[in-house]
Amino acid sequence: MHEESYRRNWATIAGLHVLEPGSHTAGAAPGNDIVLPASASSPRIGRFVLNGEVVRFEPDAAAHVHIGDRSITTPVDLIDDEADKPDELEVGGIRMMVHRSGQRKTLRVWDPQGEQARGFLGFRWFPIQMDYRVTARFIRDAAARDVKVANTFGDVDAYKTEGVVEFTLGGRTLRLRPFTTRPKRFYFVFRDRSSGEETYEAARFLYSDLRDDGTTVLDFNQAYNPPCAFNPYTTCPIPLPENRLDVKVLAGERAYPVHVALPKS
């Protein structure tokens, strides 16, 4: 299910365009501010206008742009992907959505038939090893707080954290600080001494659930690469200094077969 989701939602991203205040024309023609993949079919679909926190899409009359089953023929203020149900524009075989990266608004573009999607090399995993499945003790902070976390696109995002988990791996006592994505659900962004060698250089992700007895099971066999491992048009969090483990974790997903350079922000 994880691999299916990654192939559909992340390997198919074909662009990430920063929206500065003002107007940005978009379409398949080279002269646009935002040049869409050729499968968008229309030389110009309209323009995106950023005014404060609002991104408005103003369609061209000849463009056939939809949000779901609704044809967009008049200007519309777009709901970005911070919401549960963001607006997703479709034209030809292309999908677009306003994505927030830190304080910046961007336009994320998907092309299921594009070069990025067709060139995706898939997943490689270490053999499952039960020594990398450990029980950790949750040590709660005095109060929950938001921490600022840099991402690979050069922006800073905020994540909620409530404490650290402590566990033993390879005879060593270690700690990691998870983010809380929902009550009793932990999200770990970590590096270890294998990062940049056997595993992806920037980080890997891992989820776990807090149990009623104050413990959580960390199964590093399920640690996986963020989408920035294989797609340069993604915005992935960089591990906090305290989440850089001084051990090799040779479990979970291996490094992507080729190095993918991240775009300059």
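That was protein one. Protein two is written in the same sequence-then-structure order:
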Amino acid sequence: MIVRIGIFSALIGGFFLLFNLFNGGYFEPEIVVDKELSYYLPAGGKGTVVQKSTYALSYSEPHEQAEWVAYKLSGATLRQPFVKRTDDFRPDPGIPSGSSHPNDYRRSGYDRGHLVPAADRAYHESAMSETFLMSNISPQDHKFNGGVWRELEELTREWAKQAGELYIVTGPILDMPAKGTIGQNEVTIPGGFFKVLLDLKEPQLKAIGFVLPNTISYEPLYKFAATIDEVEAMTGLDFFAGFLPEEVEMELEASVDVNLWPLDKKKFRKRIENWNNR
């Protein structure tokens, strides 16, 4: 009986999906709630931790941006049809002290750079829209945001598809000398950004960090690779603390093998020949 009900439900679901598609409708998938989210947040930060639907962040009021965002990236959601980009930048009402404002970036010469990329949540309009809250935005040099940072974001999505899922923490390096401030809220212009990636899927557990200066780059991405221990030393954060057995955490965070994270020579050439010149 259970099997029959399951088959019947699947047939009914398939019928309604086809009906919607043939009649111009669209079934928006459910937002994927990450039940593990509270377990892999970094320790040692100075900001206010705020949890969203599919990611968490620590907001630094003195710098008017997140000191980190943490989330899981699933290959399954990346394979779903992309919704239209929302571009609805807006202040975050969930920040108790108040977040930065889109106007802070106007005529500043800096992009409103995503920490959780919009494309990482493009399977669902509401999930994508949440990435346009200003608490998820940081001032980025245009040719950094559209160049080497874009390349890393695109590669991260490819790596997530290959691995099945990745645990990601990323943010500005606020302990690095700043490049100034912008806007009425005096948003700090970070000198650089970091991203750490953790793959816990067998057969190959692996981790890698990246530290990139907030400027145009003509170097291949592997030049910016670092161990997670090195990123921790630069940021003062403790990644994945208590999330992994101590011996596993120590091993994964102490070394990095860039060969386990394949780069794309075509993307690199596109960055050098095209993206860096826009």
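The chain is about 30% helix and 20% strand. Keep this in mind for the problem set.
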